Amino acid sequence: MKTHYKDYSNLENDTKCGGGNMLNDTGMVPITRVIEKMKLENLTPDVKLDDIALTMPDINRPAVQLTGFLQDFANERMQVIGNVEQSYLNSQPDGIERMKKFLNLKIPCVVYCRNIEVDQEIIDAATEAGVPLLRTPNTTSAFMAEIIKWLNVELAPTMTIHGVLVDVYGEGLLITGESGIGKSEAALELIKRGHRLVSDDVVEIRKVSDDTLIGTSPEMTRHFIELRGIGIIDVKTLYGIESVKNTQQIDLVINLEDWDRDKEYDRMGIEEHYVNYLGNKVVCHNIPIRPGRNLAIICETAAINCRQKKMGYNAALELYNRAIANINKGKEEA
Amino acid sequence: MVRKQMAIDITADLDRRPIAKLVQEASRYESSVCFEYKDKKVNAKSIMGMMTFISIMNRATAAKDKIDVIIDGKDEQQAMGAIEEFFA
C-alpha cells in the first residue's frame, strides 16, 4: 500500500505558519497538581511546593539507592517507597541516617505507599531539605500504575491545530482546512445529526502514545462554535450535553479544500493518505468542496468507513478483488 | 514571509477595539496571519484562536508583552501594514 505524507513533525523548524499549527512546550506537572489528583497526604506542610514540579513520567523505587549505590540514579523522578524499602530501612541500624542522606539527593518528592508510618525525625529532615513527603493508602504497584498512566498523559508532547474535532459514531474526526471553508458549518450539521462536538477552530492535540493522539479544546473556547454571519454560539446550552464531549481520540483527518480541476482526488480509496502530527500518522482524506456537496453526510460516511476498515473490511479492496476474480474467470473460460 | 515584533498591550488595546475587528482585518488578506507569544502561536483569522490567545496573555504577568506577528503570502506587506495601523 502506498502512503502519502504531509509532515507536521518538524514544526519547530517550520517557518510557515500555515493554518496556525504549532508545537507547545512539553511541560511539567506542578507537585500541587499531583497531590490534588492522586489525593496524597502531605506529611511536610512546611515545605514550599510552588517551585517543585515533575518533568518525567517515570518513577523510581529507591531500594538500591538506599543501600548506598548511587550510580545511574534518576533523581529527577518521583521516588516511591513501598513495604520493601521501608522494611529494609527498619532492619538497618542506621536506617534513619540512610533516609536522611537520600533526602539530600535533589529529588522532587518522596511518596510513601500503604500509609506507612513515617518517623518524625525523617519528616523534620525532609522539611529542612525542602523535599515534600507524601503518603497514599494505596498499594505500591497500584499507585505506580496509576501515576505513570496519568503522568504520561500530562507530560505528553502537545500541539495546537487549526481545525474542528467532532466525535462521529465514536470515531474522532478532525476537520481541517483554510479559514472560511466551512469547517464549523460541517461541525454544526454533524451535531444536528446527533454527533458530538469536541472543539471548534482550536484543537489541542496530545500524543499519549506512539499510536494515540488525544484532542481537546482550550478551556477558553470549550463547546463554542463560531459561525460566520451569526457569531459565537454555545453548543452545550443550545443542543444539550449530549452534543458535546471534552476529549476524543483522533482517528481520521478530513481536509477540506477548494475544488481544483487539475488535482486528482481519491476515487478508489485503496491507497491510504496520512498526515503526521507529533510523529504519529493519521489517515487523511482530502475532500474537495463544491456547492451542493453535503459535507455532513460525507464526514459521516468517512467515519463509518474508517471504522469498518478497522474492523477488517475494506470496500475498495473488496471491489478490486471482485474485479480481479471476474477477469480470472474470463481467462479460464476462454 | 514577514515577521515583526510588536510591543503592544494586546489585552488593553483589545478592550477598546473589539477583537472581532482585528480578526476581520486579518481575514481581508489572502496571506496567513499568525500571532505568536512565547511559544504559543495562533491563527489571527480565527476568533476562537484569538480568544484563546488573549487568555494566554492574561495569565502572563507583564502588561507590556512583545508579540510576534507573522504574515506569509502574496499580500503580506499590505497585511502587515494593516495590522500595524490597527494597533497604532
In short:
The complex is a heterodimer of chains A (334) and B (88). In chain A, 31% of the residues lie in helices and 28% in strands.
Q: Care to describe what's here?
A:
The complex is a heterodimer of chains A (334) and B (88). Chain A is an alpha/beta fold. Chain A has helices at residues 31-38, 63-66, 83-91, 95-103, 120-129, 140-154, 183-192, 235-239, 295-310, 315-333, and strands at 3-7, 22-23, 29-30, 41-42, 53-54, 59-60, 78-81, 110-112, 133-135, 158-162, 164-168, 171-176, 196-199, 202-209, 212-216, 224-227, 231-234, 247-249, 252-258, 272-277, 280-289. Chain A has 2 domains: 3-24 and 157-317, P-loop containing nucleotide triphosphate hydrolases (Rossmann fold), CATH 3.40.50.300; 29-154, Udp-n-acetylmuramoylalanyl-d-glutamate--2,6- Diaminopimelate Ligase, Chain: A, domain 1 (3-Layer(aba) Sandwich). In chain A, the strands form 5 sheets. Chain A has a 7-stranded mixed beta sheet with strand order 1-20-21-19-12-11-13. Chain B has 88 residues and is of the alpha+beta class. Chain B has a single domain (2-87), classed as 2-Layer Sandwich (Histidine-containing Protein, Chain: A), CATH 3.30.1340.10. Chain B is 47% helix and 28% strand. Chain B has helices at 10-16, 19-27, 47-59, 76-87; strands spanning 2-8, 32-37, 40-43, 65-72. In chain B, strands 1-4-2-3 form a 4-stranded antiparallel beta sheet, covered by helices on one side. Chain B is globular and about 30 Å long. The two termini of chain B are 22 Å apart. The model of chain B has no long low-confidence stretch (mean pLDDT 79). The A-B interface holds A 15-20, 22-25, 160, 162, 179-180, 200-202, 218-221, 224, 226, 232 and B 1, 27, 32, 34, 36, 39-49, 51-52, 54-55, 70, 72.
